[in-house]
Amino acid sequence: MNDKATQLIEASIDLFAQEGFWNTPTSRIAKHAGVATGTLFNYFASKDALIDAVYKQLKAEWLAHLLAGFPQAGTLKERVEHIWFRHIEWGLRFSVRYSLMMQLKLSNLVSQEVQQSQEAELAFAYDLIVEGIADGVLIDVDPAYLGQIFYVQMEAAVSYATEHNLADMPLTRHITQGFEIFWQGVTR
Q: What is the reported pTM?
């Protein structure tokens, strides 16, 4: 990605997190990025296109973190646990970016096209669930529903750890216990 485009995305992340999407005009984003106001539109056709780029950037960072060291040959439990720990770790380490990614995910601001492309990149997680159901490890429910349960419980773990300022051993215990509660609830 071009340096100026990256500067604009980073400026958008800062300002969207501080002021919200609707309260942040493109002129402020350009100024915060240190570029001329019109420059933004050389890289992004509209504010909506910029929002899509921000969401894609955040999801790409999250996914790269999630997949780092992924135990491809591990058991189903090891692979799911890896996702669990890495998701929560990223959410806590990059709390502003995580919060903004969650807000964008829940908003109607991200285009359908970008949402669908991001879902395609997460197909591996859906495949894990399908594999687990087929192998008789996971309960036999709609894989999409099980995926939603997984995602929401990871979000709850991040939220709780953030609200209670967990660190060190209490944080490790929270993440481990949360995973075991989740795993017991979805396995046969």
A: 0.92
For residue 109, the Cα-to-chain-centroid distance in whole angstroms is 16
Phi, psi at 122, each rounded to 5°: -95, 10
In words, the CATH class of domain 48-186 is mainly alpha
Domain 1-44 identical in fold to domain 48-186: no
Question: Which amino acid type is present at position 145?
Answer: Y
The encoded tokens of residue 97 equal 């970016």
pLDDT tens digits, 30-79: 999 999 988 999 999 999 999 999 999 999 999 999 999 999 999 999 99
What is the CATH architecture assignment of 1-44?
Answer: Orthogonal Bundle (1.10)
Check: CB of residue 12 under 8 Å from CB of residue 24: yes
End-to-end CA distance of the chain: 46
Token pair of 165 as six digits: 């300022």
